[in-house]
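Researcher: We plan to redesign the surface later, but first we want a full-length starting point. Tokens attached.
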């Protein structure tokens, strides 16, 4: 598609092959990418004030095995000069059972439902009205950044690779069953590392990169966070489960509340009570 395409509220489009949109798609109806489908949004140019390639106000569904890819535009030297913008507007819905690859930039003000087989990878901004329900994988790879406003429920996994970044923005709320951070994770909202139903189903999280808390961060009951990287706490950090950490640096206003178990070095005993300065 080189020009503009609009799907009306009652319209349905099924794609089971290869499709490339270099113009614009305004979707008010239902657009499905089948198990053998690959829909690529790839603009040859962009400019300030240009409409996004995809303006979704309806339903975008990607079946297991299907791919929705948001490409970037390269300049003559091979570097990225502009990113293709795709926007899921308030009231719009993405149903992802396959791969949603954002090499450009995906903005979500509506709802994204990611099934257990679904993957969301790349550059992503969730706005204040956005909702992300993810039973699959959410991944920020090297040089990717994800900004999570709104509400994010990740019952699958959230992975931040080396040189990748995830930020929970002011007012944002994130709860996650499996956090694996090897890059940079910052919180200015509210983060809960979920735990299992009981001690026998404890959920494990890991940090080998940089984790900075500027608001509220909680390790829930039956959750275990292994820190082999750096944690800096500038506000309120609550441990209801377990934390293993050789280094937890407290900022001037940082407060570490321990209602669970903290191990500060291999083989050490638990540390209890209210702690204001721990580690560095």
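Model: Full-length starting sequence:
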């Amino acid at each position: 598609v080189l020009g503009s395409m609009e799907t009306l509220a009652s319209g349905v489009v099924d794609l089971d092959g290869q499709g490339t949109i270099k113009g614009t798609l305004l979707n008010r109806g239902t657009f499905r990418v089948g198990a053998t489908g690959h829909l690529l949004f790839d603009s040859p140019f962009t400019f300030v004030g240009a409409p996004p390639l995809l303006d979704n106000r309806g339903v975008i569904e990607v079946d297991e095995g299907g791919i929705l890819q948001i490409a970037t535009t390269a300049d003559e030297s091979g570097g990225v000069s502009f990113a293709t913008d795709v926007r899921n507007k308030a009231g719009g819905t993405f149903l992802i059972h396959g791969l949603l690859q954002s090499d450009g930039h995906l903005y979500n003000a509506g709802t994204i439902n990611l099934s257990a087989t679904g993957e969301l990878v790349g550059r992503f901004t969730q706005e204040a009205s956005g909702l992300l329900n993810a039973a699959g994988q959410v991944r920020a790879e090297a040089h990717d950044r994800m900004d999570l406003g709104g509400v994010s429920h990740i019952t699958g996994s959230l992975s931040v690779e080396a040189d990748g970044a995830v930020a929970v923005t002011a007012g944002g709320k994130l709860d996650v069953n499996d956090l694996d951070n090897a890059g940079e994770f910052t919180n200015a909202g509210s983060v809960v590392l979920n735990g299992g139903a009981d001690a026998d189903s404890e959920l494990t999280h890991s940090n080998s990169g940089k984790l900075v808390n500027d608001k509220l961060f909680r390790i829930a009951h039956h959750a275990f966070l292994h820190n082999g990287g750096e944690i800096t706490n500038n506000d309120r950090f609550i441990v209801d489960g377990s934390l293993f950490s050789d280094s937890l640096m407290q900022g001037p206003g940082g407060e570490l509340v321990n209602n669970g178990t903290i191990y500060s070095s291999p083989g050490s005993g638990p540390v209890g009570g209210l702690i204001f300065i721990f580690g560095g």
